[in-house]
Amino acid sequence: EVQLVESGGGLVQPGGSLRLSCAASGFTFSNYEMNWVRQAPGKGLEWVSYISSSGSTMYYGDSVKGRFTISRDNAKNSLYLQMSSLRAEDTAVYYCARQPGEFHFDSWGLGTLVTVSS
Amino acid sequence: QSALTQPASVSGSPGQSITISCAGTSSDVGSYDLVSWYQQHPGKVPKLMIYEVAKRPSGISSRFSASKSGNTASLTISGLQAEDEADYYCCSYAGSSTWVFGGGTKLTVL
User: Fold this and answer.
1) Is the pLDDT assigned to residue B1 strictly greater than 80?
2) Cα A40–A116–B105 angle (5° rounding)?
């Protein structure tokens, strides 16, 4: 069974940093492209970032470009999102999502809540 | 990367059919047959319902169908059931490994 478990969320002050993790199991992690998608409280989904299966290629949404860094460790079956210069508008549940070699997201974690507030 | 446009809400009675529209641009929906749809029940994780415009993943009911014309995609749910009440999001590939979601549509089964 595919499992994605995010962690690392919490309360952080504006301008602060946080590192999210996503532990994958139940599939060959290194074969899959991965993404982060977020959802602000009561709001819709927003794509945040993409990373290729090898970790060599990354892309970001305009709202986080230059502030967030996606990475992965295939030996540890883990995906990461390093977030810096955090703003109140970054407050959201952050989901890691598996991309099955195509252009959609077929498995999602339960999410981890990031709250940016003073 | 502007969000795709969906109606905020739609409603229908059990057994009826409803359609949710998803308007994009020539840079996303209009350029790629790579629209997907996700269902999200309150407090739950998004679930893939449709991919590549009209394909259903294994296990998804045939009551869910979808299509695309020009810059607009649509999701149709036939034979509405109470369990279909949820938020629905469209999503389009927008090139260079980037994606854009719609704002979401709340489906109410009357």
Assistant:
1) no
2) 5
Quick check: helix, strand or coil at residue B20?
Answer: strand
3-state secondary structure of A89: helix
Q: Exposed (0-12), middle (13-18) or buried (19+): which is A35, by Cβ within 10 Å? A: buried
Quick: pLDDT tens for A37-59.
999 999 999 999 999 999 999 99
Sign of CA dihedral B67, B68, B73, B74: negative
pLDDT tens-place string over residues B12-31: 999 999 999 999 999 999 99
Question: For an interface test with B, which of A59, A104, A110 has the most B Cβ atoms less than 10 Å from its Cβ?
Answer: A104
Q: With an 8 Å Cβ cutoff, is A44 touching chain B?
A: yes
Helix/strand/coil (H/E/C) assignment for every residue in B72-95 = EEEEEECCCCHHHCEEEEEEEECC
A46, A102, A108 member nearest B101 (Cβ)? A46
